[in-house]
Amino acid sequence: MIMAGTDNGGLRATQTSAWINIKKAIESTSAKNIVLVMSKNPLTQFSDAEEGKALHKHLKEAREKTGKNILVITTGTQGNEVRIEDGIRYIKTSGLNTNTDQVKDASFLKIKMVDDKVYYTFENFLV
């Protein structure tokens, strides 16, 4: 799991060493599954759209080169969504961001990894 700060609209604007850290982490791990967690979706929410495209391109090339499963998980938007772009799974979960003050309307992402397979479901905090 790789945590990357994007609160200021992108990787560079939030932490100047983030690109290097992400590249090193992906290249050095023997794990078959990589989960990249950030607050902004690089495809739709980066202030610099070109930086978002560059990150996607890097992730796509890493997936093609290594065969690893790569998931990019973001939160803070209302509603849950999965988008697969060039084999990269972009998963948005609402987390605690709801239209109501009801915790029962919040959700989280449950991930299970078995060998080279990744399973995930959206779960409600309260049933």
Concise synopsis of the structure shown:
This protein is α/β, with parallel strands linked by helices and 127 residues long. The chain is built from 3 helices and 7 strands.
Describe the structure.
- This protein is α/β, with parallel strands linked by helices.
- The chain has one domain.
- It contains three helices and seven strands.
- The chain has helices spanning 11-14, 18-28, 49-66, and strands at residues 2-3, 33-37, 69-75, 81-85, 88-93, 107-114, 117-124.
- The strands form two sheets. It has a five-stranded mixed sheet with strand order 1-2-3-5-4. A two-stranded antiparallel ribbon has the order 6-7.
- The longest helix is centred in the middle third of the chain and has 18 residues, at 49-66.
- It is globular and about 40 Å long.
- The mean pLDDT is 89.
Proportion of residues in extended strands: 25-35%
What is the overall number of helices? 3
Main sheet: which strands, in order across? 1-2-3-5-4
Total number of beta strands: 7
Features:
single chain, 127 residues, alpha/beta, two-stranded antiparallel sheet, 3 helices, 7 strands, 26% helix, globular
Secondary-structure blueprint of this entry?
Elements: E1 2-3, H1 11-14, H2 18-28, E2 33-37, H3 49-66, E3 69-75, E4 81-85, E5 88-93, E6 107-114, E7 117-124
Parallel strand pairs: 1-2, 2-3, 3-5
Antiparallel strand pairs: 4-5, 6-7
